[in-house]
Design a protein that fits this description.
de novo design (two linked rop proteins); about 0% strand; about 130 residues; mainly alpha
């Protein structure tokens, strides 16, 4: 799954880059385009950083960073569609991929947190 998710986040970034390149480079579309370019390409970077995490806490922090960027990206996608700069139909598959990536990353964070919690409780109990 790691390689698949690595590739999916990279492909997501490339799709964001293509979207940005197709936007008119003026007015609101310029501002929204720069925002979505930054957040949409940061998702994969955060996920790659997470793969080199030094601890579970570090891993969670980096994946949660990717989640924040994804959530922000969905916001910019909504604004691009709602403003009429880009048709909602054109943004649909990109929005769906963002939501799928959000679900996957949330699941990963929950799993790591659930594995971490019993260990933390055992350590506290053992110290008493």
């Amino acid at each position: 799954m790691e390689k698949n998710l690595r590739e999916r986040t990279k492909q997501f970034a490339l799709r964001i880059i293509r979207l940005y390149s197709a936007l008119p480079q003026r007015g609101a579309s310029l501002v929204l385009g720069k925002q979505i370019l930054k957040s949409g390409t940061s998702v994969g970077a955060h996920y790659r950083e997470a793969q080199r995490a030094k601890s579970n806490a570090d891993f969670i922090s980096k994946v949660e960073g990717a989640l924040q960027e994804l959530d922000e990206t969905t916001y910019w996608l909504e604004l691009l569609g709602d403003s009429g700069i880009v048709t909602r139909a054109r943004l649909n598959s990109l929005h769906e991929e963002a939501n799928e990536l959000l679900s996957i990353l949330v699941t990963i964070v929950k799993r790591v947190k659930s594995k971490r919690t019993p260990n933390s409780l055992r350590l506290k109990t053992a110290r008493r």
